Amino acid sequence: MNYLNTTPMRAKGTVRILRRQQELPLLRDHLLRLDRSSRHDRFHGFMDDSFIERYAEKCATDGTLIIAYFEDGVVRGAAELHPPEQSPDSLPEIAFSVEASLRRKGVGSILFRKLIAEARAKGYSSLRITTDAQNEAMRALAHKFGAHLTFRYGESTGNIDLAEQKQAEPAPSAMATTIDAARAITNFNRAYWGMLFRMSGWGRAA
What we know:
- This protein is of the alpha+beta class.
- Helices cover 38% and strands 22% of the residues.
- The protein starts with 13 loop residues before the first strand and ends in a 6-residue tail after the last helix.
- Mean pLDDT is 77; it is low at 1-7, 167-189 and 191-206.
């Protein structure tokens, strides 16, 4: 009998900053591909195409840093780092968007780590994040990276203290992972058979 593999596939694309002016329309195209639910999560309400086009154009000229997640040469996710001058409390604000086909594959975490590294490089000590109160995936991701969210007027708002953020640890190599797994299996087997021997009386002194 064949069983369907329900384990989600991990992200396999690349991440880089959109540096050249001619690349910034890639953000617009990505945002326009967001479905109705994803647009609501990203902008705290449904926004039509004309709003998104104006928003992307503004990001291209106001100093916003765009970190893009690419698959097959197409931007499928983005992290935005908006300069503090645009915020009433002078805190740089961050935002994320991931297309529906790549949800639950680790894209958000990849973008979050890269964004925090870039924010540190700019000398920022704190970041502000605002998301829809119903966007549980974004709230969970924000909590994962140390945001303390409060609820107000249908939104969740919080700050991330970069001084409290630990430097990202390198992912273990495939060889190290295999060795660790084999060691764990060996230890489990040793403990399991030892328990059976004790229960059956084997190994007791005569």
